[in-house]
Amino acid sequence: MFIRQIHHIAIIASHYETSKAFYCDVLGFTLMGEVYREARDSWKGDLALNGEYAIELFSFPFPPERPNGPEACGLRHLAFSVDDIDAAKKQLEEKGVVCEAIRVDPLTDKRYTFFKDPDGLPLELYQA
Fold this sequence. Notes:
Number of strands: 8
Number of helices: 2
Radius of gyration: 15 Å
Helix content: 10-25%
Shape: globular
Largest sheet: 4 strands, mixed
Strand order of the largest sheet: 1-4-3-2
Order of helices and strands: EHEEEEHEEE
C-alpha cells in the first residue's frame, strides 16, 4: 500500500452553522458544497483550503462531547501551516479567537501557537 496524501479530515460539530462560519469566515476555508441528510438529521459540508478539498464538516443530533484536553486518546490536534505566524495570530485575535502565546518548537526551531474551534478542538498554527 502506498498512501499519497491525506484526502480529508472529518470534524463533527455540535452546532453546524457556528462551526461552518468559524472554518470559512475566520480561518478562510471555502464551502465547496453541503447537503442535509434527512435520514440522519445531519448536515455535511465540504470545505476547501486554497482550492484543495480538506475538511468534511458534519453535524449530528446530540454528539458526545470531546474528551477534555489535547492529551486525550485519539486525534490530538490539527496543524495549519502559515507563512507569517505573527500576522495570522493577529488576524485570529481580531476576529475574537483566543490564541496561546507563540512558542518555539525545540526540535525544529519553528514557531507555533494553539487555539480552539467552537467545540474545543485544538488547532495549531505552525510557521513554515
